[in-house]
Structures are given as C-alpha cells and as structure tokens.
Amino acid sequence: MADGVVPARVGQPETILDTSGRSVDDVPAELRENGRIWLTYTFHNPATGVEQLKRTYLQLHDGLVFGSGYYILDSQVQAVTFSSVLQYEDKGKDAAIAAFDATPDEPLATYLFVVDPQTGTTLAQSVNPNLIGQVADWGAITEVLATQDIIDAISRGTGTWVAYNHINPVTSNEETKRTWLVMHDGLIFGSGYYSSNIPESDVIFAVSSTIRTYESNRADDAWIDVITFDEPITTDALYPFVINATSWTRLADGVVPARVGQPETILDTSSRSVTDVLDELEARGSVWVTYTFHNPAAGVEQIKRSYLQLHDGLVFGSGYYTLDYQVQSALQGHILEYERDGRTSALASVDIIPDEPFTTYLFVVDPQTGTTLAQNVNPNLIGQVADWGAITEVLATQDIIDAISRGTGTWVAYNHINPVTSNEETKRTWLVMHDGLIFGSGYYVSDILAPADLPP
Q1: For the segment 50-96, what is each residue's pLDDT rounded down to a tens digit?
Q2: Bridge partners (DSSP) listed for residue 242
Q3: Tens digits of per-residue pLDDT, 401-421?
Q4: Based on the number of CB atoms within 10 Å of its own CB, is 158 exposed (0-12), middle (13-18) or buried (19 or more)?
C-alpha cells in the first residue's frame, strides 16, 4: 500500500516472504497472536542494486502491517567500526592501533582500517597490504569522494557510506566495495564489504532456511517433497539441494526432481575430492566449493560457488553462478559513477571505446525512444545492431519496464554478435532502471569457462 523507496511497488503483490522460509498463512497468524514479528529474507538493496539479506520488523495495526528493516551485511560492518571505537576508548590510542594493525592468518574481507584524515596516513589496517595491491582503502576512497566532503559528513557524529573499487584480499579480484566511515578522536574508522560477500551471505541464509525446513518437516521425510518440486523449474533464484553424506547421493533438489536418488556430481569438476570435502565438513561443519554445474536460467554449464553445511548426517547446500554476479556488480559500479559524476559525464565515460573489445560491455538506453545513449564497444564489432534492438525482439519494451521499474532488475537472453569472437552467440544480460534510463551488461555463451579453466 505504501513504499518509502520505490513507488511502483504500490498496488503490487507483496514479495518479502518469497525467500523467507515463512508462509503467507504463518506470518499473519503470528501477527494476529503477538502483534509483531521479525523476518529474515533477501530483498533488493537500493544502495547496492542487488538482492541482499535483510531483517525486517513487522507490526500489525488497524488491519495493516507496518514494516522496516536493515540489510545484514551493512549492520555487520557498522558493528565492526563501532566495536573498534569502543576498544580504542578502552585501551587508549597506542594499544588499540597496535591491536588493529595485527594481520590475521586468514584474510577477512570486512577488515578494519584507521586513517588520520589530516595527513591521509593509514595508521592501522587488519589485512596484509600485499593482498590489496599496496593501495590502502583511503587512497581509493578519496578518488571518488573529497576528504573535506567526508569530514563534513561524519564530523556531526554520524557516519557515512562510500562505494569504490578495490582489491578484495580474499578473492584477489577488484570488486566494488561498500564501506562505513565514522570519526572518533579526530581519526576515521572504516570497515566494509565487497560485492562477492553479498551472494555468499545470501547463500548461507538459503542453506540455513533449508535446514529449518528439514527440522520442521522431519515426520515421514516430508521435507524432501517440500524442497523438491514435482516438475523441473527455471529460476534465477538461489535453490537448495541436500546430499546424503554417507552414500553421496542427492536426496532433495529445488530445481530438477530427477536428480533425487542419483549419485552426487558437484565435485566432479571442482578439484576437491569427496573425501577431502567430507573431512573438512566433519572438522569445521561447513565448506565452500567451486565447480561447474547446469544453470537452469541460462541452460548451460557454468561456474558455481556453493556453500555446504553438515547437519544430522546430511549435507545441505546452495550456491550462486559467478558470472551472473560479476555482471550485476560491474553494472552497479557504473550506476554509482552516474550518481557521483552526473549524467553527462557518466555517459561520456561509458561511451569511451577501449583498445581491446570485451564481452561484458555496458550500454545505456532511453526506453522512451529506444535510443542507445552510450555503449563502450565499437558498434562495427556487433554488426551495427545495438543490444536494445535485439532485446526488444524477444521481450516487449513495456514488459521490461514493468519488470524493472519496481526497483529490481531482470535477466533477458537473446542472440547477438560477440565483439570478441565475431560470432553470433546467445547472450544473457542484466537490465536495471536508474534515473529513467535502462542500464545493461551481460555475457556471451563463450564467456562461460570450461572445466579445465576452473579456479581452485
């Protein structure tokens, strides 16, 4: 009935329970009994442009449900900075800075850093600088936001968010990073998360939800039918699967029911053996694995990163396809540049054609006229046919607008000339709307890595 961010959601069916593990019958019943309820689910974060884990409080009043929530990754990094400020207060400057500057054995993406804004000196950071290319966060931050603007924003006692590109010390890839900055005792404390932390957080939640489903439906093994559909489905959403840890066969599958009862294949292309993974599950309770697997939305094998958790002799899992998220993350980075630099400057930047063509190029379209305003690929390399023309041959413009005007994006598949191979290939593209324009970026079928190219 009302929405504080996206007016197009008004009048639409509510979707917050679609990924919550709670039913539409269950939640209203608890609201009627208790008057209020907390829920956890995945939902579009307008600040990052993608689905993220969100925790929301709902309260029943006068026959209406009022709600608001927070994104869990945001809250986690804010907690890191706040606890560090408390530690600074407790230990004093010298002892706290020395503690913050200790480098852990295993790098963390949400590491802390402390900066003297007057000199630009990083006084402490809890990550090996070799893992972030010797470029401290502060140097990357001040490339997108002036130091004085940051000080003005946070010197009033509140913090501020900033997004920028930086090397993730865990993946060694340059990713978009979202960081929370606060000022204390004349110093700036910061902690953030990288784009790859978002799907991993969502996947862990999906596995936890599946375990709750298992525990709630154990009688007569009803959980298997709850997780497994009667017919195969095509979906972009995270889906669960369950493996028997002893026989290494699939017991439940959220997409393809015919996989149930079959020998498990996820490790066939992973560089990890079944024994190795089971040993780690026994020792730690959970493990991440990377392998190639069928993407039901794309219809082909793709690199997938999955989280496995051992529970009650069963292995519960869910994962995400890495190319999908890389494209979504890169596109959101361009939208952040648009917000920071303004329309004219951002579109001019997009329209610069690189010396070497690449497949995941960006394009920006005015949906009212169908005009491609910018694209960073030579049009001669894609047969003079802009992506938008190919897209609207398979999906009507109004259907696209209806799908993305509610604040989320949509995937679309079509045939197009690959600027690198010069061949017509199937392309999968992510579209979002921002400031009345449609931003798009995608990948071609030849971008999907073969098993031999799979990272360890």
Answers
A1: 788 899 999 999 999 999 999 989 999 999 999 999 999 999 999 99
A2: 252, 316
A3: 988 887 778 999 999 999 999
A4: exposed
**Are the beta carbons of 280 and 442 closer than 8 angstroms?**
no
Report the C-alpha gap between 161 and 142 in whole angstroms. 13
Rg (CA), the chain: 23
Sign of CA dihedral 104, 105, 110, 115: positive
- CA end-to-end span of the chain, whole Å? 48
- Could you tell me the CATH number of the domain that includes residue 421? 3.30.450.20
Q: Which domain holds residue 113?
A: 74-195
Asked if residues 266 and 306 have their Cβ atoms less than 8 Å apart, the reply is: yes
Q: For residue 394, what is the enclosing H or E element?
A: helix 387-394
Number of domains in the chain: 4
One domain for residues 317 and 220: yes
Of 326, 328, 362, nearest in space to 347 by CA: 362
Helix (H) or strand (E) holding 82: helix 72-91
What are the DSSP E strand ranges found in 387-448?
A: 410-417, 424-434, 437-444
Enumerate helices (H) and strands (E) in the chain, giving the number of each.
12, 18
